[in-house]
Amino acid sequence: MSPDITVATGYRWLVVPDDPSAEPSRELVGGKAWSLWRMRSLGLRVPPAFVVTTEACAAYFAGGGLPDGLTDELETGIRLLERELGRTFGGGDRPLLVSVRSGAAISMPGMMDTILDLGCTDDVERALAAETGDPAFAAEVHRRFSGFYGRLVLGCTEELEDLEDTAAVRAAVRSDTGSDIPQDACQQLHGAVASVFASSRSRRAVAYRRHYGIPDDLGTAVTVQAMVFGNLDDDSGTGVLFTRDPSTGAREPFGEYLERGQGEDVVSGRVTPKPLSTLADHLPGVHAELLTAADRLDAEGRDAQDIEFTVQHGELFLLQSRPAKRTARAAVRIATALVDDGVITPAEAVERVTAEQVRSLLRPRLADGAADGAETLARGTPACPGVATGVAVATPEEAQDTPDAVLVRHSTSPDDVHGMIAAVAVVTEQGGSTSHAAVVGRALDTPCVVGCGDGTVDALVGREVTVDATSGTVHAGVLATTAVSEDGDEDLARLAAWASEIAPVRVADSGPEPVFDADALPADEVGDAVPAIPPGTRTVRGAVFTSPEGVRAAVDAGVEVIVSAIRLPVLLAAAAHRRSDEGER
User: Fold this and answer.
1) Could you report the per-residue pLDDT of 150-201, keeping only the tens digit for each?
2) pLDDT by residue (tens digit) across 481-492?
3) For residue 269, what is the domain's CATH number?
4) Range of the domain at 381
5) How far apart are CA 506 and CA 574, in angstroms?
6) How confident is the model at residue 4 (pLDDT cuts 50, 70, 90)?
7) Residue 186, Cβ neighbours under 10 Å: how many?
8) 78 and 6 share a domain?
9) Is residue 113 part of a domain?
């Protein structure tokens, strides 16, 4: 909020981040709202907003509805936005529309709901048409909002995106749900806030939290933010910028831009955007301003950033900045580069790379010459590198039920996450490098190829395929792969050296007596559990002691050496266990 507005105290459920010097609690306002405060504190242009807290979300689930007093506070927050912008929510000559966006304290990209263009009614559409002189734009805003509200709040299961106008969307929603989209903007807001709260316990959000070990009672804050319109005119658009390449970690901006689009168009993957150079060619001043802001956010955040932005009539607005989801290769490269830049210490670099990431980095790659003469079934954009072989399936449920499944979709949505977690690779017909499939694929470190074109699902489903997500190709059949070694990779060697100084155990080819060899035990004595380590053991060997559970058992038993040909994942797991122990004490 602007500093000349006096904000009343005593809010129970809201935070109004109007003071750049007063950092809000991330646990209270969520990562998205916290990033808005951070960008505004740096003097960057951010649409004004207020936040419904995670405490309100907890109260919503405890009481089965919006908590007492929240609707009054929502009205107060809206009044503050109206005063700052000189606009009116739900009517007037200069209408105010808002986005209603989720935001947990721990980033969960795309897992919860966002509703754009809220506050649009028949009267607002007419006023917006008069203000902009563009009835087609106003009609499109209304159609989009009706689709968001019908699907996310009222639960419409029909396809709404391709319906031609608002009347068709309303009719489909009414037919499917028996409910009408409200013509009262405040009623819309109440329904949207409740819907975003509820989305924090959706199947996709639960699956994501379970996969990453995130507490299930985390909940979400809700950010209510003034809309800016990337679909306003030819000097408007939306995009995503990574300050470092999320696939390789290279220190260069990487992103996509969609002219006359809204953010949902890009991240959903329904539309394939253009390279960021499109913005540089059309609006070079805006592009330069964006890169300057990106450099500041990268430096201030001490990590690679994923930045969402909108351009409205030639003016840049930043909507979010968060640590970027990246591939294992990028995680390693970025960590060592930040040490070289003096931004983080070697110990912090070790913290930022997980054992699982290094294990995925050491997965087999396509053998030299293996693709020569192989039938190529599809080509697209590499979104997360790697190689995987399996049977192509068309639904997330099939991916869960099919061993080594390759999930092939027109585009992915948050509702596909459980299948993406189960699949060995993901392939899409539509979408670019910043689409939902690409972002989640990198977060999971699952080989992913996007934008392969129409007909890909029909061409692949039911066939055994090899996905080479490093080159962006899908081949018929099973192609030969070759192992990858830690040796010869400078970044991995440096991480291993740093981790060796921190980890409470050494990893080597051999160690001092007495040695406990789990692989020498009879199979019926081992089972699935880590075997008990005899007291006084100084060295352990065996595959079980390279697993996270085995590493923890060895460290807790006071073992000095774990024998393993692959050192770095074991060292990182041991260092992480040590940090966990220190954090609990």
Assistant:
1) 999 999 999 898 899 999 999 999 999 999 999 999 999 999 999 999 998 8
2) 987 788 778 999
3) 3.30.470.20
4) 365-482
5) 9
6) very low
7) 15
8) yes
9) yes
